[in-house]
Design a protein that fits this description.
about 160 residues, mainly alpha, about 75% helix, globular
Amino acid sequence: MSAVVHQLTHAFLLVYAGLFPIVNPVGNAPIFLALTRSCTDRERRALALRVAINGFFLLLGSLFVGSYVLEFFGITLPVLRIAGGVVVAAFGWTLLQAKEELADQRTAETARGPDAATDAFYPLTMPLTVGPGAISVAIALGSTRQPISLISLCSPLWL
């Protein structure tokens, strides 16, 4: 049983260590607050929960299905790693070189209108929280993961 727990802990820490710096929730918090400044605290909490759920399922899907998509299109893992690194570097360079942008021009009415539910996915989940870099890291981690067999999980229970 301890080998299975060790294997699960190792997998969790590997995924956490790989994705946390790319997703960067601490660095994205001020951006989220700036984009939702016209929302009330209750609306902001609900929106943050939807963004977290969307991001979780997007990364989980990338982790488990991404390697099959790569195989279908004939993309190798080294190409994905290089492309993901280039995307992250280009995004970082853009952030370093960006001049101060104008404030968000949306009024409170448009922020609370029917588009508020779609804001949870775009732009808050997809490009802001879980961008191309995070998806490429999730796919790379998913394609190199060691599958845990159901028999090894259940075998200590039968002993």
